[in-house]
Design goal:
Elements: H1 14-23, H2 60-66, H3 80-84
Amino acid sequence: MIRTIEKTEDTPSRIRFLQLTNRYSNTLYCPCSNHAITYSTFVRTEVIFHQVCSSQFIQQIWINKLFTNENISFESTDDFRVTLSFF
C-alpha cells in the first residue's frame, strides 16, 4: 500500500531546498515562480580605489583652493595655484 504524505515547508534555506530537490525530485512541488538565494552566496565584492581616486588632490577642498582668486600673485612661481589651475 502506497501512502501519500503532504508536507509544506515555508522559506527553506538553500541547502534544505537542494536536499529536498535531490531526495524528492519526482514528487516535489514548488509553487514559487522562481527560487532566490542571497547575493553573498555567489557574489563577492571588494572595492579597491585607484591611487588617483583615493588621492587628496581630487577632493573638492583641493579643487576649490586651485580655482580661488584670493591673494594670487602671478609673479610668484612658488604659488601652486598659478600653474596647477591650468591642469
